[in-house]
Amino acid sequence: MLHRLLAVIGYPAYMLNRILAGVIGRVGLGRVPGALVVGLALAALAATTASATLEAYGTRREPRAATISEVVQGRIPSLIWIVFDGLVIDGPRVASVEVFGGGTEPSIVERVYYLVADPAAPNRAIVVRAPEPVAALQEAAGPIRLDGTITEDTFSMGSLLADWDLSAAHPGLEVSESRFVAYGFATPWQEPSWIGAVALGTLAAIVLIGAALRQPILRRGPAGEGTRGRTPMSVTIHGELATPRGPLRLHGTPARLQWMDVEEVARTRWRYWGAALGDVRGDVEAAVRAHGDAAERLVVHGPTGSVIWPIDHAGGLDIEVGDAFLGMRRLAAIRIRGDGAAATLTFADTASRDAALAELREADTTAASAH
Known about the structure:
Elements: H1 2-26, H2 34-58, E1 64-65, H3 68-72, E2 81-99, E3 107-118, E4 121-130, H4 135-139, E5 144-152, H5 154-164, H6 166-169, E6 174-183, H7 195-212, E7 217-220, E8 233-241, E9 248-261, H8 262-273, H9 280-289, E10 296-301, E11 308-310, E12 318-326, E13 329-338, E14 341-347, H10 350-370
Parallel strand pairs: 1-2, 4-6
Antiparallel strand pairs: 2-3, 2-5, 3-4, 5-6, 7-12, 8-9, 8-14, 9-10, 10-11, 12-13, 13-14
Helix pairs in contact: 1-2, 1-7, 2-7, 8-9
């Protein structure tokens, strides 16, 4: 279960490596996993998004400290959320007002009004409007701390003050005739979402974890005896093999496991790499002839321009046998390390894998007898 889980987690990174291998190779970074590049980019985006979200939280507005006198004198603009001290000197008074909702027709609702004076300047007062009676205002015996948004409504205030007749009850009181404070109404603020940062961070973690896993995930197990004589056989290469151009990273490249004589090996190398080999061709031919003119060697070779890897001495390889998990697939596999290789070879079935293992053992015997 653990192997399959790791394979599923690492599969997106494996696909990114496969898709981006050509692009990264063109810029001279062929051995850099594409998933690592994408994972780091996603991590940077996640960090940037998280930073922007934190900054958005920092823009949350707080009420501005003010006095009733400043509001009455117009020294603070409308639509500002303020906090102030006030002394209730009249009210509550209930009056109807038109309220415009989402539709085209206004609705008539009742609102409760209080007349609140400035404790430091009792000759100035402001009307405070609330959607329903406020117990704290009605029960306050002295100054009380209030908050609300300064609102401009000349029409409603004119009708209210005409009916209220504050000049008779409070002679000499200076009251704004166009502005009131909407009690408890804060500046609208939408809380920023962490979804973007969390999603990007999760993707970055999955890709980076996958980049650190060697795909396919191998679960070691016993191998059968294996029957020789099935070469050439199909094999898929995942990992790194040696080539005349240096180590080559492969991502599910189809290839063949095949016995070749000296001339066929030399022709194959030349056919795959052509003039790009340069003087390497002579060195290759000299190396293969060291096994004898009539000898054969076990070779892994792929499509034109991909890989050719003659197995010089299988006994010098670290070989693990088992099942490889790649995404949701389970494949018979051999993992090899050494002699310029660090790869997993997967096969169509267990019988093919065991046959390939028998060929590797034969290659080791052949190399030993040649020396």
